[in-house]
Amino acid sequence: MKIAHVAPLFEAVPPRLYGGTERIVSYLCDGLADRGHEVTLFASSDSATRARLAPCRETALRLDPRPLTSAIAAHLSMLDEVRRRADEFDLIHFHLSHFQHFPFFEHCPEKTVTTPHGRLDYSDLPGALARWPDFPFISISLRQRRPLPAANWVGNVYHGLPLAHFPMPPPRSSSTEPYLAFLGRLSRDKRPDRAIETARRSGLPLRIAAKVGADDRAYFHDEIEPLIDGEKVVYVGEVGETEKADFLQGAAALLFPIDWPEPFGLVVIEAMAFGTPVIAWNEGAMPEIVDDGVSGFIVDSVDAAVARVGELGRLDRNEIRAVFERRFSAERMIDDYEAVYALLLADSAASPQARPRPFGQNIAASRVNGSRHAPPE
User: Fold this and answer.
1) pTM surpassing 0.70?
2) Pair 267, 241: CB distance under 8 Å
């Protein structure tokens, strides 16, 4: 297949530090290229890929040293370039969440598929979807679909990670001081305050490795920074891939105390890759991703989280790794995307003007989860 992937321009592919969407796009493009597909990646020129790179901006927006940039203008320029080259590809896979590509490709929605990597409960999205109803979508969890049930969902593919990049570490030394980990963004919807309270009440120290974005600086300064004492609560800053591996594999558990409809949560499966259990709040896709009592615990309160910290010893870190390998490998993710691509191309060839038929409830759920998780209401 000749496949174009269109990534957001906020981070390089893969990102140097924080950036889940761009990391998944990187794994997907490299894996498809390794399987012999002709893959072109539209991204910033500081990206590194085994696909053919179509550079659309000299550097990712977040790392641009210039004081003023325009994300809207940058993405409009990229989309116009993709449209200009559209005839080169069998399928164009967009990884953009707010549908800005729809007007550019309204003449050929059947040639596209969109994986929105973010939340879909923004008030303006249903109106936009009503204007362009024929664009096919692939969700990253069944829960993600709930705000847009009328969308043309053709598949659900959970994220996956290359097993070779995430080797299972040796058993943790009994002499190593246990700690709880918080990894991600220091924002209100990630609720680091819950993580701090859980750690303090459980008696374990908390290490925080997180990005503080421009929108989150006031919240961090006013509400979180005063709680960081450098001993029981330690902020280590934003970490790269090597530091992240050490950080996660050394933790007694990852705390994921979110307060928003998280569509996936890449850090959750990154922890599982190292056999590290996850204590996650019952929000968003967490009941789909965490096997309660096996790879971690799903909780509804700080009280419940503190209680589960005391039960971490009954979880088998080797079994957590086995769950990760079975459900969240990059090979499984690429298999699932290939199957959706094949369906879309077959439908387009049979009836180029036809709306793609639904792809069951999802290909990945049947393969990975069996019937354990119900489709979204």
Assistant:
1) yes
2) no
Bridge-based pairing of strands 253-256 and 180-185 is parallel
Q: Letter for the amino acid at 137?
A: F
What gap in Å lies between CA 323 and CA 319, rounded to an integer?
Answer: 6
Distance CA 257, CA 255 (A): 6
Tens-digit pLDDT profile for residues 115-135: 999 999 999 999 999 999 999
Mean pLDDT across the chain, nearest whole number?
90
What DSSP assignment string belongs to 289-332?
HS-BTTTEEEESSHHHHHHHHTTGGGS-HHHHHHHHHHHSBHHH
Locate the domains of the chain by residue range: 2-160+330-369, 163-327
> Under CATH, what is the fold of the domain 2-160+330-369?
Rossmann fold (3.40.50)
> Would you state the pLDDT for residue 121?
95
State the CATH architecture for 163-327.
Answer: 3-Layer(aba) Sandwich (3.40)
For 89, the token pair is: 């590809």
**How far is Cα 254 from Cα 215, in angstroms, rounded to an integer?**
24
